[in-house]
Amino acid sequence: PTANIGVVGLAVMGSNLARNLASREGNTVAVYNRSPGRTRDLVAEHPEAGFVPSESVADFAASLSRPRTAIIMVQAGAATDAVISQLVEAFEPGDIIVDGGNALFTDTIRREADIRPTGIHFVGTGISGGEEGALNGPSIMPGGTAESYETLGPILESIAARAPEDGAPCVTHIGTDGAGHFVKMVHNGIEYADMQLIAEAYDLLRNVGGYTPAQIADIFAEWNTGELESYLIEITAEVLRHVDPVTGAPFVDVVVDQAGQKGTGTWTVQQALALGTPVSGIAEAVFARGVSSHPEQRSAVGATITSRPQPQVVPDTFVEDVRRALYSSKVVAYAQGFDEILAGGREYGWQLDPGAIAKIWRAGCIIRARFLNLIADAYERQPDLVSLLADDFFAKAVAEGSDAWRRVVATAALSGVPAPAFSASLAYYDSLSVDRLPAALIQGQRDFFGAHTYRRVDLPGVFHTEWSGDRSETKVSD
Ligand code: 6PG
């Protein structure tokens, strides 16, 4: 055996990760792909990597030193199961199989439980950063046993991105079995929210503010020098500045306005519903992609419209208002995402460290942002923080921007420009901050039609009113 680490699945993500591994001191990388042509191409294109190629799983296993460590980078689902069972056949107790795809975390829990009796470690790991990240340094979210992390940790640390603030590698052992894939799933939910919020900001600047895509590119580039500094804001400026070489029109105007998705955002929302964690901003972001992808409904409803609201006359502060609305809505998206992470930890018995998770998202991943330092600080100040919105720093920042946020949401509504994530985020913030919610009325309705009972503000116990009788109240239990 000559290699200390192997990669199975050599599509773009897999081959970039293999090249990243090979570029680090001390690594020799075994590579295997189901169709051997891909393996041969990769080895021929990158002689500098010194890959050890195999054309069978048995040869691949034989090329790895013990404990064998292999990272699978194939499509989530059936393809992943197929590769895992081949590796389990060829590997021995103590070896480590890592699934680096975007697996559903419950699949990871199942696979880990199935494989554990063989003595082989199964580690589901989130890897974020797209193709570029895989090659130059992703953010890595491994689950699995603490024991497997002893071998795997140093290898992952060698290839992970490094936070600009302190050079710390963007990887940490998240928790056992499916914890890594769970946290990667929520990362993607937050990614959806970040992207949708940015898209709404663009839409308002363009269709209410009257700015051109090139001007909005400049606005985003400017925002990227302040508290919104992040990878997604940075690339948004680039996309908006781009001109279509065929027509000379802004690139954003020649792209069909239907957003695709591969499922991780939907999983985040499904899981949040199951956990009872409201992630309304994230959910609106997922739904907005869904709405965009139903052109038949959009054209049918659009055809019924005879006049649209006039864009509102906007104040001089409009651009700054939108920036503040974006920032506050972004705080909500992270507050909701971290709520879901902590709820998942409680449900599945993982000891999740929100501050450590915020830190490994500071570089390498798609949602990397300066802002994540502040989240890490918030959890450091108060490890049992019940909501990011209750943290002193974020509470103050959001309160200071709340007038602007309201003006933007109101302007969007009056102008007929959809801003579902901005509005849902503001409604969430207001719901958490008003004295009383109309949930009391819902309790009354529930008690009326189904004797579902209610609690009183002034007395202990559980009560029911005889709605169809004399409307007297009875105490049902203590
Ligand atoms: C990442 C990304 C990545 C994801 C894409 C596509 O962290 O590198 O989250 O894992 O596959 O962003 O997601 P959608 O196709 O669902 O937009």
Please characterize this protein's 3D structure.
The protein has 478 residues and is α/β, with parallel strands linked by helices. 54% of the residues lie in helices and 9% in strands. The chain has 21 helices and ten strands. It has helices at residues 12-22, 36-45, 57-62, 78-90, 105-115, 130-136, 146-159, 179-207, 213-223, 231-241, 251-254, 264-275, 280-292, 295-303, 318-348, 354-360, 372-381, 392-400, 402-415, 420-433, 439-450; strands spanning 5-8, 29-32, 52-54, 69-72, 96-99, 121-128, 139-142, 454-455, 462-465, 473-477. The strands form two sheets. Strands 3-2-1-4-5-6-7 form a seven-stranded mixed beta sheet, sandwiched between helices. α2 links the parallel β2 (29-32) and β3 (52-54). α12 crosses α13 (280-292) and α15 packs across α20. The relative contact order is 0.09. Bound molecules: 6-phosphogluconic acid. 6-phosphogluconic acid binds next to α8 and α12.
**Ligands bound, unique:** 6-phosphogluconic acid
Outline the low-pLDDT stretches: none
Strand residues, percent: 5-15%
Task: Average the pLDDT over all residues and give the rounded result.
Answer: 97
Number of helices: 21
The radius of gyration over CA amounts to 25 Å
Shape, please? globular
Percent helix, as a range, is 40-55%
Beta-strand segment tally: 10
EC number: 1.1.1.44
Pathway: Carbohydrate degradation; pentose phosphate pathway; D-ribulose 5-phosphate from D-glucose 6-phosphate (oxidative stage): step 3/3
GO molecular function, one term: NADP binding
Family: Belongs to the 6-phosphogluconate dehydrogenase family.
